[in-house]
Specification:
Nucleotidyltransferase, domain 5; 3 domains
Length: 502
């Protein structure tokens, strides 16, 4: 089924349409926005102007027509700080309802912050993380502890109203910047838990965060064009802030990574982020590709289908379903590879921290077949890198994709030179080891029926023996798996033998 979610924000009005699977998995199939800057009206006049009301109504009519065309079962509309603060909010909401015939839920600031937390928890494993969502007229903060939402707060300032108050849209006047920094420092110090909680990371939501992440990737020539999960340091943030505030609007429009509709307000957003990082003594900032709309979507799924137990498994099941993969074969290969991993741990010298990488590589190694069977390992590599896989860092994604790339044959060696700024020589050694285990397991399930099982392995001074059981004589499977014997000897320094235990 399809669900439409519309967010009437201070900077833009956005719609996402998501396709929700029966198991609760989903994918966004459309994402459109109109930059109406309702927050500027409220900041200057205290109310939303007639022109902006009409523009909002026209936008919502277009969005509703798109939802109807794409056969959504429901449309959820929420409004945030701009309408919350508008003196004519009741008139605005009433006129929208009459013109569009849709109810709008006016969110409280703490509700926004909570839904931001829901979005992050659906895509990241967290220990003690702070979530920030910088909007046009407000900034939401959520404190996450051990994958739970612990605190939520909303601050009544954002990129649009601060830009207006301190004249930040074009040339930055030093005295105004000093006033801005003093204001932000005072506001953040009013939140005592920011310094008390010993926060280990900041997860940033919204367009400003995505722009800064893209800017940092461009200036570092980062090889992976994936926004969500990208991390940069507090020092990187300070450098970007210094670059942006030293330029006028015309110059900022030319900065790689900064979108044209955000160049006039990006200094304010960056100042908010930079001050918060300093106050909370945070060293790492991670960009989230999901925000308020995804939080609403995940809450809808939790309420109507049921919550998911593990974010990685949840996303993998959705991708398996979306690409119509043979689920039994995928799990047969993963279970066999996992057994080999456990049995050969003394030789591999790897711990359980690699299990997420192994699981993704094994379960999605055939995903490229959905594009084309021939050379599907190459397509699997691309799909893994560009699918919404929860809970993995960029390094882990590249490693999983590279392992899957090497699953078909010994000669299929992934060129990792492009990613040397992310993975190192030791990571490549891990890729070689785990792809070897995957190739053996794939060979042992070449009939894709799970008939052959790996029971155990024995290790002696010169040789590793893999003992199998099953419903039939696995001579063909063993013959294919033994094609890896030379690579096995090269990587693990022992001979390989495979025996069937009837």
């Amino acid at each position: 089924m399809h669900l439409g979610i519309i967010d009437i924000g201070s900077n833009s009005v956005r719609l996402i349409i998501a396709e929700i699977q029966k198991n609760g998995g989903y994918k966004v199939i459309n994402d459109v926005k109109e930059s109406l800057r309702l927050g500027m009206d409220v900041e200057v006049d205290g109310f939303i102007s007639e022109n902006k009301i009409n523009a909002t109504i026209d936008t919502l009519k277009n969005f509703k027509n798109l939802c109807i065309y794409m056969e959504t079962v429901d449309i959820i509309i929420v409004a945030t700080e701009a309408i919350r603060k508008a003196s004519n909010k009741e008139d605005v909401l009433g006129r929208i309802k009459k013109a569009v015939n849709l109810d709008i839920r006016l969110l409280k600031g703490e509700e926004e912050a909570y839904l931001d937390g829901v979005a992050v928890l659906s895509s990241f494993y967290t220990k003690r993380s702070l979530v920030i969502d910088i909007g046009g007229s407000s900034t939401e903060l959520s404190l996450l502890k051990d994958n739970q939402i612990y605190k939520c707060t909303c601050l009544p300032f954002g990129s649009i109203n601060l830009t207006h108050r301190y004249g930040l849209n074009d040339i930055i006047i030093p005295t105004k910047e000093d006033e801005l920094n003093a204001f932000l420092l005072e506001e953040f110090k009013k939140i005592p838990w920011l310094q008390e909680e010993n926060i280990d990371s900041l997860i940033a939501i919204g367009g400003a965060a995505r722009n800064l992440g893209r800017m940092d990737r461009k200036r570092k020539r980062y090889p992976l064009d994936v926004s969500s999960g990208y991390s940069f340091s507090d020092m990187d943030l300070t450098q970007m802030f210094n670059i942006l505030k030293s330029k006028n609007l015309k110059q900022r429009l030319k900065v790689d990574g900064i979108s044209k509709d955000r160049a006039d307000i990006i200094v304010a957003s960056t100042a908010i982020l930079n001050t918060l990082v300093s106050v909370a003594n945070i060293k790492d900032i991670t960009v989230s590709g999901r925000g308020l709309r995804e939080g609403i979507l995940c809450k809808y799924i939790n309420d109507n289908i049921g919550p998911h137990k593990d974010i990685l498994d949840f996303s993998l099941e959705a991708i398996i379903c979306d690409h119509n993969l043979d689920r039994n074969h995928a799990y047969n290969v993963y279970n066999s590879t996992r057994t080999l991993f456990e049995e050969l741990t003394p030789m591999l010298e790897l711990d359980d921290s690699y299990d997420k990488i192994l699981k993704v590589a094994c379960l999605l190694h055939d995903s490229g077949i959905s594009i084309r069977y021939y050379d599907h390992h190459k397509h699997s590599f691309y799909i893994i890198l560009n699918s919404p896989i929860n809970g993995l860092s960029h390094k882990e994604l590249i490693m999983a994709a590279s392992i899957a790339y090497c699953h078909r044959s010994i000669s299929a060696q992934m060129n990792t030179m492009a990613f040397t700024s992310i993975i190192n020589r030791m990571d490549i050694e891990v890729i070689d080891k785990l792809s070897l285990l995957l190739r053996i397991s794939e060979a042992l399930d070449q009939n894709m029926m799970g008939i052959v099982k790996i029971n155990r392995c024995s290790i002696d001074d010169k040789k590793v023996t893999i003992f199998l059981s099953g419903l039939k004589d696995p001579s063909l499977e063993i013959e294919k798996a033994m094609l890896n014997k030379d690579k096995f000897a090269e990587i693990l320094k022992k001979d390989l033998e495979i025996k069937f235990e009837s």
